[in-house]
Write a structure and sequence with these properties.
This protein is 33% helix and 25% strand. The strands form four sheets. Strands 5-4-3-6-2-1-9-10 form an eight-stranded mixed β-sheet, with helices on one face. A five-stranded mixed β-sheet has the order 11-12-15-13-14. Strands 7-8 form a two-stranded antiparallel sheet. Helix 2 runs parallel beside helix 6 and helix 9 packs parallel to helix 10. The termini are far apart. The structure holds adenosine-5'-diphosphate (ADP) and magnesium ion. The site of adenosine-5'-diphosphate (ADP) has 22 residues, from helix 2 and helix 4. One of its GO terms (cellular component) is MutLalpha complex. This is DNA mismatch repair protein S5 domain-containing protein.
Amino acid sequence: MRLDEETVNRIAAGEVIHRPANALKELLENSIDAGSTTISIQVKSGGLKLLQVTDNGHGIKKEDLKIAVERFTTSKLSKYEDLTSISTFGFRGEALASISHVAHLNITTMTADSACAYKAHYKDSKLIPPVACAGVKGTTITVEDLFYNVPNRLKAWKHSSDDLLVMTPSQALKNPTEEYNKIVEVTYTFVSTVALKLQQAGENSGDVRTRVNSSSKENIRNIYGAALARELIESLKVKVLYPDCRHKCLISGFQLNMQLSNPNYSVKRTIFILFINGRLVESGPIKRVLESVYSQACLHHMNFVCIVQLTEEQYLPKGSHPFVYMSLKFPPSQLDVNVHPTKQEVRFLDEEEVVQYIQDEIEKCLLGANASRTFSIQT
Ligand code: ADP
Ligand code: MG
């Protein structure tokens, strides 16, 4: 049986938009692609009831409001070859379309050459004719009732009498607080090139602001606290893999910037934040390397603590959970960004060599940390 168009679109949308934080990531990417310098975010119930992003970017022309929300329409790519040198976050033209199939979507936008702003409402990706309104240059995108028509994803949620969302045991999404925490992570770690402001509607707490050009360490301190920030080892390296072009005709290399928790410090759960060319992504091979290096470093550390314990009543770390922030930068030609609909994965050339180099660097950092710890106790 051939599925009807609406069903196909809703299934596809579920692949792109998993949870509020990743809808927010898509909206922020669009705002940055539009050249914004300030962005403010409003959130209600962990982003499930409301997710609103307002930017001061170049806006969307009235005549483009219709296609902006259709699948596979983008202003950022015109032919496949453009992908090899793409500098924008977006290129698939799927985010707004996906959001419009699983939420109520409104866009208010104004371009510099327009006399007024336009407010557009969409139903299943279809534009209801936009109306003129007052506004300033930029775009506000409002996403309400995310997953209202995706019962499986919302199965876990039901509205209680006090209008809070409550989890049932078969949770598909986490609770609003956890979703909000994810949103905070995305907001802070996302970019340091724009000023971001995040507010929880109807809540006095939990608001965050980021400065332009804030350092990764500053952002980590803001989200995860000063205690963790004090325990971080910083590393910045540039590696050229084939300097003389004898092995490969391509000169390949990369920059690696890391903030690692030292092996004496453990966070509640493993946190691994990876940026590749400024994109927040995931990488199985790098994650596996981290886990193995940290578990070895932890064993090393436990042996050491055992000796100390003879004289001091100390407890052993029960399995160390590391915090790792990593930013990798490659020349765009070394990177394939089109691997996954959420753009959550990227592939890069010379993966084995790069991963090996990362492993060696983390080992060096952690061994150095243990050496300094030993020294400080011996004195
Ligand atoms: P993509 O980012 O891959 O192009 P999206 O579905 O995320 O696809 O967005 C579709 C189009 O809508 C973009 O190509 C862009 O032209 C426009 N757009 C979306 N958000 C904004 C924004 N905040 N400011 C200006 N234009 C936007
Ligand atoms: Mg986009």
